[in-house]
User: Which sequence fits this backbone?
């Protein structure tokens, strides 16, 4: 593995699905050795998420490809004493332990903070939960749809629940949570440099969702009155609205300057006489006559293609953003130019691209992504390094404590 900022750190990923494991993925991007603990025989349920009904259809396991990259897989059944003993040996050699186990499960498997810090006082124990470590929902399971989106109020703001399911795209809450957990781990590692001791850090889907939605929550906390939901034909502000161009491309205006933005748009569409029209010349007037503004802009914007409008918007300083479909997002040149996508060698597809973690340090090149492992692909290597001989490993295999699978 290439030398990098976190090279030399050993991270145990003892989580499932996305939020905790993705924090480990970020650490691996910067050189940390990440050992993924998976229960035999099936491993992390996240391995199968790509193939669930409602997910984008592919024969390739794209979810696991993304968040399993760079990791080593050690299959251990923590429900068996020998599995717990192996994990304890591993924890004694580690710098960071990441888990999303509930307190009840962590205690059952003897992987609580108290258990592991007694073995390794320098260990950073990173715990991610659905709803936090206190209160009546402490042990309640939570996914990003329920704990991040719904509990924080984001679902109610974004979705029209009279006509939409409220289901959210996979990982859209979990991945922001992974950044929060990663940040917590970095703080604890910095603290360890000073104190010489590890510590426990935590975050939750609920807390990170609340931080994402904090402007709206703060408004509610001071008793603000929230506007009713509007459709695109009668928005409160027609200059923060989506439109379609002549070639069918969608985009959104986000024009927040109450004095100058209307003039910019009028000049772009070739209607400067509307700048001082009393129906549209102020924010209040445009809100009162929103349907008329939208109809006017719909008609004007249909007259040119997106590429033509993009040039004119840029010339006038109009703030806008495209609303592309996913196939266009996946080939976005601006993202490529900024390292958002990185190459990965796939055994079947050859060179493909994957999404990099959104953190960059000047002068530092992230690890070249490696394929996500098979279940137990590195079990023999890791168990051997922990002092288990061939007879012991074979005994563990026969008892179902581990799976040993060759990478060949």
Assistant:
């Amino acid at each position: 593995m290439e030398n990098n900022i976190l090279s030399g750190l050993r991270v145990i990923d003892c989580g499932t699905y996305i939020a905790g494991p993705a924090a480990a993925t970020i650490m691996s991007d910067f050189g940390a050795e990440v050992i993924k603990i998976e229960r035999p025989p099936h491993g992390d349920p996240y391995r199968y998420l790509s193939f669930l009904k409602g997910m984008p259809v592919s024969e390739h396991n794209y979810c696991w490809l993304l968040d399993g990259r760079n990791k080593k897989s050690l299959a251990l059944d923590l429900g068996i004493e020998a599995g717990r003993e192996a994990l304890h040996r591993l924890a004694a050699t580690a710098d960071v332990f990441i888990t999303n186990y509930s307190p009840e499960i962590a205690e059952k498997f003897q992987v609580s903070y108290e258990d592991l810090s007694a073995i390794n006082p320098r260990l950073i124990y990173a715990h991610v939960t659905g709803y936090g470590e206190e209160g009546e929902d402490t042990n309640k399971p939570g996914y990003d749809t329920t704990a991040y989106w719904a509990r924080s109020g984001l679902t109610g703001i974004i979705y029209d629940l009279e006509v939409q399911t409220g289901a959210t795209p996979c990982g859209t809450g979990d991945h922001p949570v992974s950044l929060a957990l990663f940040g917590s781990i970095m703080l604890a590692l910095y603290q360890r440099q000073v104190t010489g001791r590890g510590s426990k850090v935590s975050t939750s889907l609920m807390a990170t969702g609340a931080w994402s939605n904090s402007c709206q929550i703060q408004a509610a906390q001071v008793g603000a009155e929230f506007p009713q939901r509007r459709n695109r034909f009668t928005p409160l502000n027609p200059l923060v609205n989506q439109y379609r161009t002549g070639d069918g491309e969608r985009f959104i205006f986000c024009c927040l300057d109450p004095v100058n933005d209307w003039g910019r748009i009028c000049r772009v569409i070739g209607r400067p006489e509307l700048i001082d029209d009393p129906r549209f010349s102020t924010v209040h007037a445009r809100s009162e006559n929103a349907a008329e503004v939208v109809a006017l802009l719909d008609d004007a914007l249909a007259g040119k293609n997106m590429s033509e409008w993009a040039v004119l918007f840029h010339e006038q300083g109009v703030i806008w953003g495209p609303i592309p479909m996913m196939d266009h997002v996946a080939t976005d040149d601006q993202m490529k130019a900024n390292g958002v996508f990185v190459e990965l060698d796939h055994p079947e597809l050859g060179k493909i691209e994957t999404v990099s973690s959104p953190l960059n340090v000047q002068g530092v090149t992230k690890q070249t992504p490696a394929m996500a492992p098979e279940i137990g692909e590195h079990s023999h290597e890791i168990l051997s390094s922990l002092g288990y001989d061939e007879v012991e490993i074979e005994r563990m295999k026969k008892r179902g404590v581990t799976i040993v699978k060759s990478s060949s």
Notes: The chain is about 40% helix and 15% strand. Residues 49 and 262 are 46 Å apart (CA to CA). The first strand starts at residue 10 and ends at 14.
